[in-house]
Amino acid sequence: MVSLWFERAWIDDRWERKVRLRIADGRIASVETGVAAGAGDERHRVCLPGLCNVHSHGFQRGMAGLSERRSRPDDNFWSWREIMYRFLDRLTPEDVASITAQAYAEMLETGFTRVGEFHYLHHDPAGAVYADPAEMAGAIAAASDTTGIGLTLLPVFYAHGNFGAAPPSPGQRRFLNDIDGFAALLDASRPKLPGDANIGVAPHSLRAVTPDELAALLQLSPAGPVHIHAAEQVKEVADCVAWSGARPVEWLLDNAGVDERWCLIHSTHLDDREVPRLAASGAVAGLCPVTEANLGDGIFPAVEYFAANGRFGVGTDSNILVDAAQELRALEYSQRLAHRARALLASEAAPFAGAHLFARALHGGAQALGVRTGLAVGNPADIVSLDLDHPAFAGTDDATLLDRWIFAARAGAIDCVWRAGIKRVAAGRHVDGDAIAQAYRACVARILA
Ligand SMILES: [Zn+2]
Question: Which element (helix H / strand E) includes 202?
Answer without folding.
Answer: strand 202-203
